[in-house]
Structure formats: structure tokens, C-alpha cells
Amino acid sequence: PLGKYPPLINDISFWLPSETYCENDFYDLARTIGGDLIEKVVLVDEFTHPKTKKVSHCYRIIYRHPERTLTQDEVHRIHQAIEESAVRELGVEGRF
């Protein structure tokens, strides 16, 4: 374990806008908003819809504070800000 305080894990999934999407842009966006509270961001699933051919990514974000236990309310506010920024800045279509 990286810390003695328990992690909070939240997933985020969205439809990608086009071929111009770059995973690193999402990683950067999440870390910019969550800062040191984000321990890890990892792509856990990629799905292509059989009819529409739209591609969806699901990321797992692990939150952990180095000095105390985080509450789900605290993490929810950060997670919601990441969702809103991803839609606004990356042009994704949220599945949340």
C-alpha cells in the first residue's frame, strides 16, 4: 500500500469525440483538477458499440489523502469537476 489511509475509488466513462482524442489529455485534466489527492488514473475498459461504432473509455480514479481519510462527499465534488471539465474541454459525451 502507498499510504496508511484508505483509498476511495471512482470510475468515469464516456464516449470519445473522434480520432483526435488522446488518453494523456484526460490524465492531465484529472491530475490538474484532483492534484495530490489522485493517486492513480488507469484505463480499465474500452468498448466499441457494434452498431454506431462509437468508442467508450472507462477510467478508474483512485483518490487518497496522505495525511487523513477522505470522505466520499469530498471526492464526489472533485470527481464531478473532472466529469464536467472532460465534457467541456475534451468534447467527450458523458456516460455518468
Automatic annotation (TrEMBL):
Residues in FDX-ACB domain copies: 3-95
GO biological process, one term: translation
PROSITE patterns referenced in this protein's UniProt entry, alphabetically: FDX_ACB
Entry's EC annotation: 6.1.1.20
Gene3D superfamilies: Ferrodoxin-fold anticodon-binding domain (3.30.70.380)
Keyword set, alphabetical order: Aminoacyl-tRNA synthetase, ATP-binding, Ligase, Mitochondrion, Nucleotide-binding, Protein biosynthesis, Transit peptide
Enzyme class: ligase
Major localisation: mitochondrion
GO cellular component: mitochondrial matrix
Protein name as annotated: phenylalanine--tRNA ligase
Lineage: Eukaryota, Metazoa, Chordata, Craniata, Vertebrata
